[in-house]
Amino acid sequence: MKNTLKITVLTWVGIYPLITLLLFVLEDWLNHLIMPIRTLVLTIVLVPLMTYLVMPLLRNLFQKWLNRADTEKDSA
Fold it and tell me: I want to staple 33 with a disulfide (CB 3.0 to 4.6 A). Which of 10, 20, 25, 37 is the partner?
């Protein structure tokens, strides 16, 4: 699997549960807002969390998988 695809998968693995959690936690507060403002609030919280907390954690956890060469499986 190419590295760009691996990063894309890790990003999704981080974003999906984080959005779900944020929607659950902020549901009562967000429900009265119109959709563009709701999205604005979610992204204001989501982007820093992903950048500074979730992605560094996922990169550390999956470092071997991210750094593994695509041809490694063919050389065995």
Answer: 37
The domain segmentation of the chain, as residue ranges, is 3-68
19, 46 Cβ separation under 8 angstroms: yes
User: What does residue 46 show for φ and ψ, rounded to 5 degrees?
Assistant: -65, -45
Q: Could you tell me if 66 and 6 are in contact, meaning their C-beta atoms sit under 8 angstroms apart?
A: yes
Interval 34-75: pLDDT, tens: 999 999 999 999 999 999 999 999 999 999 999 987 655 555
